[in-house]
Amino acid sequence: xxxxxxxxxxxxxxxxxxxxxxxxxxxxxxxxxxxxxxxxxxxxxxxxxxxxxxxxxxxxxxxxxxxxxxxxxxxxxxxxxxxxxxxxxxxxxxxxxxxxxxxxxxxxxxxxxxxxxxxxxxxxxxxxxxxxxxxxxxxxxxxxxxxxxxxxxxxxxxxxxxxxxxxxxxxxxxxxxxxxxxxxxxxxxxxxxxxxxxxxxxxxxxxxxxxxxxxxxxxxxxxxxxxxxxxxxxxxxxxxxxxxxxxxxxxxxxxxxxxxxxxxxxxxxxxxxxxxxxxxxxxxxxxxxxxxxxxxxxxxxxxxxxxxxxxxxxxxxxxxxxxxxxxxxxxxx
Amino acid sequence: xxxxxxxxxxxxxxxxxxxxxxxxxxxxxxxxxxxxxxxxxxxxxxxxxxxxxxxxxxxxxxxxxxxxxxxxxxxxxxxxxxxxxxxxxxxxxxxxxxxxxxxxxxxxxxxxxxxxxxxxxxxxxxxxxxxxxxxxxxxxxxxxxxxxxxxxxxxxxxxxxxxxxxxxxxxxxxxxxxxxxxxxxxxxxxxxxxxxxxxxxxxxxxxxxxxxxxxxxxxxxxxxxxxxxxxxxxxxxxxxxxxxxxxxxxxxxxxxxxxxxxxxxxxxxxxxxxxxxxxxxxxxxxxxxxxxxxxxxxxxxxxxxxxxxxxxxxxxxxxxxxxxxxxxxxxxxxxxxxxxxxxxxxxxxxxxxxxxxxxxxxxxxxxxxxxxxxxxxxxxxxxxxxxxxxxxxxxxxxxxxxxxxxxxxxxxxxxxxxxxxxxxxxxxxxxxxxxxxxxxxxxxxxxxxxxxxxxxxxxxxxxxxxxxxxxxxxxxxxxxxxxxxxxxxxxxxx
Amino acid sequence: xxxxxxxxxxxxxxxxxxxxxxxxxxxxxxxxxxxxxxxxxxxxxxxxxxxxxxxxxxxxxxxxxxxxxxxxxxxxxxxxxxxxxxxxxxxxxxxxxxxxxxxxxxxxxxxxxxxxxxxxxxxxxxxxxxxxxxxxxxxxxxxxxxxxxxxxxxxxxxxxxxxxxxxxxxxxxxxxxxxxxxxxxxxxxxxxxxxxxxxxxxxxxxxxxxxxxxxxxxxxxxxxxxxxxxxxxxxxxxxxxxxxxxxxxxxxxxxxxxxxxxxxxxxxxxxxxxxxxxxxxxxxxxxxxxxxxxxxxxxxxxxxxxxxxxxxxxxxxxxxxxxxxxxxxxxxxxxxxxxxx
Lengths: 333, 494, 341
Hints:
The complex is a heterotrimer of chains A (333), B (494) and C (341).
Chain A: H1 2-15, E1 27-32, H2 40-54, E2 60-65, H3 70-83, E3 88-92, H4 96-106, E4 111-115, E5 124-129, H5 131-148, E6 154-159, H6 164-181, E7 186-191, H7 198-211, E8 215-219, H8 224-234, E9 237-240, E10 253-259, H9 261-274, E11 283-285, E12 292-294, H10 299-304, H11 307-322
Parallel strand pairs in A: 1-2, 1-3, 3-4, 4-5, 5-11, 6-7, 6-8, 8-9, 9-10
Antiparallel strand pairs in A: 10-12
Helix pairs in contact in A: 2-9, 3-4, 5-6, 5-11, 7-8
Chain B: E1 6-14, E2 21-30, E3 35-40, H1 46-54, E4 61-66, E5 69-70, H2 77-80, E6 82-85, H3 97-101, H4 113-127, H5 140-157, E7 163-167, H6 175-192, E8 195-199, H7 203-209, E9 212-217, E10 220-225, H8 232-239, E11 262-267, E12 273-276, E13 280-284, H9 291-298, E14 308-311, E15 314-315, H10 321-327, E16 329-332, H11 347-351, H12 356-359, H13 367-381, H14 396-408, E17 414-418, H15 426-441, E18 445-450, H16 453-459, E19 462-467, E20 470-476, H17 482-489
Parallel strand pairs in B: 3-8, 3-9, 6-7, 7-8, 13-18, 13-19, 16-17, 17-18
Antiparallel strand pairs in B: 1-2, 1-4, 4-5, 9-10, 11-12, 11-14, 14-15, 19-20
Helix pairs in contact in B: 8-17, 14-15
Chain C: H1 7-32, H2 36-45, H3 51-76, H4 84-101, H5 108-136, H6 140-159, H7 199-212, H8 214-224, H9 226-231, H10 238-263, H11 274-284, H12 289-311, H13 319-331, E1 335-336, E2 339-340
Antiparallel strand pairs in C: 1-2
Helix pairs in contact in C: 1-2, 1-13, 2-12, 3-7, 3-10, 3-11, 3-12, 4-5, 4-6, 4-10, 4-11, 5-6, 5-10, 7-8, 7-12, 11-12, 12-13
């Protein structure tokens, strides 16, 4: 029996020694630094890329999940690049330019489409979102809600980790928005330490609620769920950062921002496949360009946020959409 | 003639590990309503016989016939009606007594509170006629050995046994409890027309409670008598017959000079002695009566509970074995495979622990030098096996020879041997005793701890007998006879 | 001689288990992958398909040799070191922290000092368990595991803290070590570097020490039968403490090499799995240092093969761990049909 297995093994090994095909139709790898499940931002990335690929006959796309171990992403990207199989590697994460640098250097013919990042590396086409604008709007809504509840003007922000965009853009933007409503307002910032520990998220949220915070915005991946649970138990409000989250926990999520990652991915990939994408020229987009938005047409939003604050908020939002108000996104290299 | 309740026919069992025939075609009748006492010294085969009866050991030949029905391999003895209360009933400190009662009972798959209450009720009812007051909810640890024994007994009665076997049931019982127990089982046997077999070392007990007494020697039943046909003295001599002492080596050892220094001595301990170079002191007791403890205490494996130990003039009380070895002590332990060797290592590895430093050249232990050392030892001591062989593949006797060679090769000042001839056949014993004598001739002081009194007469220059954990009498070998020794061991004399 | 005692027979037994394991892998791939042929090709050919792949494979094989040797040393002496994860991670932190304070002019001296710091950190963790065992008879299986489990969050906290944390990075990692202390790489951009090659002589040295010296003899005796070792006068205290300390030290070295050679900074979770896989290597090698190198190579191949399959989109990500577990299960099996392997 074991001899048979060994023979089978040998045959298979020999059969699989065929050389790789390196030419063929355009093919794309979508690399997810994490998992698709439970990460709307990555699901949108994947959806947008696939939509663009579907429009080009013969083009292929493969989605590869990289898992949560950040230390391995570099190795994985390098392996994808070294295979020469993908004309484009599409991914999204502010850390990706850094992580893929070695691979880009070693395989200069590999092109990378990196969303949610800003880099002038000639191998990359990057698109960054103006997080300051987005979190500013959240801050405005948060401040209005807190005032409505007669609660102190303190908002909570629970992040998966600290990183430059978070520290330099999102947190200050959040506070600015709050101060626009209540000048004495403050933001309480907490860090989970990773992107998946829901229990820790719940713990941190509860701590904030005990302090009197009435509105909290979680940006912590899988840990968001814990924050929702704690908010539901305490009857507090949650602002959902970058996707429509009203249905995730009805009655708890009061406002949802939106990063149109699927639109961005679709357009970037479409350009790449058509050959019209410019590399080495990072783009920054916000409300005016149509890649950031706020979900105000949801019946839940209308129901939960009283008329007065709602109208004030929508006015601010309109200014951003029209480009009348613009905020500069600090770039940290 | 009424057929016996239980008939043992030609039961034979040889242990493959050491080739010893523990039961040699044993045939015995056990009659309904009787109490049979089984006597015999250690190694006579009592435990094996009892195991064969109770179905825990499978015989090589022979059978057990219970009420006319031959028990087959698939029959579970307890289900058929043979119940055994071992000397140390298995117990778990955590489990409650009622849980012990149903250990291994396959009928219990789910025990709800109601079923448990019924069980405890049943157990209490069973225990009552015996006068056992037991709290069945106590854990094994809380209950204590006496309660455990009673619980085990009661639990067995649930199965309505026809034959009850008790292995040294009164070993740990004070007088009145021992009486009560034996009286109770005796009445039970008569009333129910069942039978009881009990193993004991206490001759008076056997005479008082047994209807018949069977004596085992070397795997055979050497005698079956009734109490009125015999006496204490006769039983003693049946157990320790003078005729079996036939010395294998008639070269007498030269006695040490009167002013020779004392090499090894103890003071204020359970067994005080003063041993000179070239002497062979034999210390013996019945099982559990003190010799086992001596092994641990004299070798530094356990601390001396009281008193002091001196070696070559140094006070070595409390010294660990490592340090004692440095002073010149060697030790052949009773646990050959657990303590005396590394069973899964090679033979060569097993003989070099004290020599590794010397065998290494420039820090490296060369394989061939180790093998050469083993070969040398093999030639001089007549060992079996090859250097690369795993130790477990050797027979018990050969393992013991190897251990002995290793220990003696150190040319020790003091050599302590514990149960060295256990499981060895006659030939191996002959060689063993020869080696011990050779060692003594070279000036080693030898202490031989054994529970086989007869081997003392083979080699020892002095013999000490322990009973009840203390040394009762220490005399030169020439001043002992097997009967006098037996009497001291049995607590009849001191 | 029976099969259990014949080393050749037990080697064949391992191969049989390996064959079964690979057979299971093939079945899993065939059943669960959308493209079985592609999956098989990715599995067997992926790990050796390019310079990058070779580099990663070699690096992992050598790292696992170190942690496998570490685990073998402990097991061989009868001690259970389950703290490899924490010891590796702490070793990495110690090495990195030292590079942040040493003068850059030290160059290679600095690298050696940092590696030594990694060794010491791991050795302290392991040795602590050894000491607890000697002094309090604390079960080292538990203490090594608990100490390691508490070391990991400690390192996580320190590595992002003031002085060490890299505030400008998007990754959870420490500041990078100064370039003077970077161990030169090989087969870029793979993980391989010059420093990890030291694993080979280290394994050889320990193989000789364990199998051919008096010290090694006593160590192995402790592992074979502790009671006999004590009876023979071997100091059970020292031979309990030293193996655990050495084991921890080797783990720490692996962590230090990983930090200084591959990423040049401490990235959170970089050493995840090195400790546990080291134990797997030790099990395959039956705690014999001579067998550690081939066993580590085998395990590294399986690991890379599994990753290659996932990376080529041929296998769902979550199942790769299951896949590895199945393989390990077979390889460490000791009995087949009741007969020893």
